[in-house]
Amino acid sequence: MPLLNNHSGIYPEAGCDEAGRGCLAGPVFAAAVILPPDFYHIDLNDSKKLSENQRIVLRQIIEKEAVAYAVSKMDAPDIDKYNILWASVRTMHKALDKLKIRPKHIIIDGNKFLPYRKINHDCIIKGDGIYMSIAAASILAKTYRDEYMVKLHKKHPQYQWESNKGYPTQVHRDAIINHGITQYHRKSFQLLPHAEQLRLF
Question: Could you report how far apart the first and last alpha carbons of the chain are, in Å?
């Protein structure tokens, strides 16, 4: 089923999504995207349903054709400060702040948000598989974050962030046991089983 172009009937409408909430290390990224009212692309979908190559191709299309887009990040210390849910919401706000056009309505993937500049918003569960602007935001957030984690991998190759992107794979957890943690790890997360976690700090 093709994704929908607009939710509110109001234009411009911005879609927001994030990437990296479930990671043990690295920032959370968020994007905000305003697409043209007649925009359509047959392959546009939730970033999790796309291959890496599809995401890269679609990112180029989105950045070329979007009326406005912006991407922001929040690093591990602030994630630990605010918790990952509200850090994600604050990062969406940062992305919205950077848009060159202010939206008149905002749609967000998920079920939690904080009001932004008195602009009406709607939270939509699995919205990245329903609305094109949210799907576009999910693709930008995911691809920008993946690129960032590949760069961090070069500084800390033992954690294999080039492949796991900071998610809790066994290789990543084994590296934490063997090498400890970095400044990029989220100390408020359960990095290891409880008995092992106690040894980290």
Answer: 49
Same domain, 110 and 136: yes
Q: In this predicted structure, what is the pLDDT of residue 199? A: 61
Domain that residue 48 falls in: 13-145
Phi, psi for residue 133 in degrees, rounded to 5: -65, -35
- Which residue in this structure is represented by tokens 């939730």? 46
Q: In 3D, which of 187, 198, 167 has the Cα closest to residue 78? A: 187
All residues at 6 or more sequence positions from 93 whose CB lies less than 8 Å from its CB, including other chains: 114, 116
User: Do residues 169 and 94 both lie within one domain?
Assistant: no
pLDDT the model gives residue 200? 63
Number of domains in the chain: 2
**Lookup: tokens for 122:** 């709607």
- CA 124, distance to chain mean position in Å, is 16
Q: What is the pLDDT of residues 127-144, one digit of tens each?
A: 999 999 999 999 999 999
Which tens digit of pLDDT belongs to each residue from 157-173? 999 999 999 999 999 99
Both 141 and 161 in a single domain?
Answer: no
Mean pLDDT (whole number) for 113-125: 97
CATH number at residue 88: 3.30.420.10
Closest CA to 37 of 71, 16, 10: 10
pTM over 0.85: yes
DSSP 8-state code for residue 198:
T
